Each structure stands twice: as structure tokens, then as C-alpha cells.
Known about the structure:
- This protein is mostly helical.
- A two-stranded antiparallel ribbon has the order 1-2.
- Helix content is 77%, strand content 4%.
- The protein has nine helices and two strands, in the order ααββααααααα.
- It is globular and about 65 Å long.
Amino acid sequence: MNVLITLIIKTCLDTLYMTGMIIIVGFILGFLRKHSIENFQKSFGWKAVAITAIVGVPIHELSHAILCVLFRHKITKLVLIQKRDESGVLGYVNHAYNPNSVYQQAGNFFIGIAPIFGGISAIIALMYTIIPRTYNEFLNISINNLHITKISYVAINGILNSYFDLIKIIFSIKNFTNPYFILFLFLAICISSHISLSTADIKGASKGLYIIFFIILVLNAFGFSKFVMAESILKYNIVLIGFLIVSLIFSSITYFVSLMSFLIKN
């Protein structure tokens, strides 16, 4: 009995190590998006939200679609953007999968969370194209943080400080003298406004999460998890945190801009 309890506790912790940060950041992004959209709508009307949707929604839906293909789901209908329907839906991907395939079932989790990473990737690609100095700094921060081998106060403080430095570089005077920087900010705000997960996304992802838990449970039961070193899990989370922090930075900027717009207009 004790062995079974230990196995379940270890599996819960391993699942948390793999997906916990994504889930936590997903909820934070959802909060920021909800209030950003509300502020934009109160300040400028629905047209302001529609403008952000022209860029943000197709990236959101394409992220789902790409992961559908990777996990061998059949896309039955893809709508990159549409006029808002009664439920407020601006785009969607309908897909089907084989319920007997563990791979395809686990894919539901990654398909559900895909817009977070699709949006981050799009913003990083914009960084590379428009503000390469900021992109290089982000790359250097990511590489330097990979040298961390254990979690400590100093390590966490170093990671946070490195991303505060990134924010300073993003909003440096040099960037503001670049006329394309305003374009970058506009596109980043559009993407960030639609980077979070919808209720349907969360529901779909939760189906895959159960399967991931079961897979880890089986691996732990047969002792395969001992081949995965703690340092590898740490590096995975460091890389993951780097990407998620980028999404939080730009979603926070979007929220701040929407809040300032609301306060000025009212």
C-alpha cells in the first residue's frame, strides 16, 4: 500500500514538474487577456478588439492546427478568423482523433496549450526581425540560465534579474528611436491579446493531461523515470520559464496599455 501511495505521489510531482508552470502561466495569461480585452472594449469599443484579432486570432488558431498535424489529429474544419458569433468566438479548429491511440490522446494537452507557444514564437520571430539586439539579449539570457544546475535563492534571483534587464532593453531609448519598434509593439500587443487559452482549449488540454499522468505513472511503476536526471528536468523548466516569461512580459504590457487607455478615456 505504501509503495502505491509513494508511486502516485511521485507521479503527481513529476506531472507537476512537466506541466505545472504551463498551467499556472496559462491562468495568469487568461486573467490578463480578459481584463485587457475589457479595457480596450470600454475605451474604444469592439472595433479595437477586432483590430488586435486580425493578427492575434490567426496565430492562435494556426498554433492549434500545427500541433493537430504533429499529433496526427484530423482537422475537420479550420477557421482562422471570423466575425464574432453569439459566444464571442473569433476563430476555431475542429479536429478528430483516434481514442485508441495514446499518442493522439496525449496530444490533446499540447494542442490545447499550443497558442501560448505559438504566440511566444511569433513574438520572438518579430524580435529577431525588427529588434535583433533585444533578440540577441533574450538568446544570451536563455543560454546563460542553462548553466544553472540547482535551484537556490541566488539562482532564482539571477533568473529574475536577467529578465528585468531584458525589459529594460526592450524599452530602451535606442529601440524607441527605431521607427519599426512601434510596429513591433503593435503586433506584439495584437498577439498577446489572443495568446491565452479559451475554455474549449482548457477542456481539450485537460483530456490530454490525464493521459500524460497515466504515461508517467506507468514509467514510474517500471522504474524508467530513474533514467531521467534531475538536472535535465531543471534545464527543461528553465527553458520553459524563459519562454513563458516572454509571454507574461508582453501580456502585462498589453494589460498596462489597455488600463492606461481606459483611465485616459474615462
